[in-house]
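Posting this for the archive.
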Amino acid sequence: METRPAPGTPMIFQWRKWDGSPHWRHECVYLGADEWGDWVGQPVGWHSVRPGAEFHAEAPNVTLVPPSADHALTVNRAHPIGMRIYIDLGWDVRWSPSDPLLATGIDMDLDVIRLEKERDPAEGPSGTWVDDRDEWAEHSVRYGYPADVMTHLEALTLDLEEKVRDLVAPFDDATADAWLDRLETLRLDRPRLDG
């Protein structure tokens, strides 16, 4: 088995695009693993940055890195706009073989989102939906995504959307809430790594 940091150890989750260009870089803390895969967390105030954008976490969140290596599930607690679930469809999402404090993945544009709160339609959709289909179409041409990768991820996106709607574990509340509780017990109230 690949080496993992000790629970409570600060680490980085680094996304890139298909062409290798940098994408989101998140300050995280390793929390542990369960039957679904490895979990990392991000306390309030920890930093995320990509070329041209950055933010500090407004709510505690945990991210599942499953062994399938084709997505990452992020679950928020008490998010300001009610964003409970944000799934990044990805490729080669895994731990770095040379650095146990680094998880990496290729961002594949498509996202599955679930909001807990209703919002005004002028602000965007509510409930559960697939986001960034336009970016997926554009980037599939720009980067030349292989047909088998596209077929797999398009089917997976629809499957994940259905599982999120049906609250099937690990997309239920109880699974992530246990990890969010664990994150909060660490009491890491300010960033530990520079962005």
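The chain has a mean pLDDT of 93. Strands lie at 10-16, 22-34, 37-42, 47-50, 53-56, 61-65, 71-76, 83-95, 102-115, 128-131.
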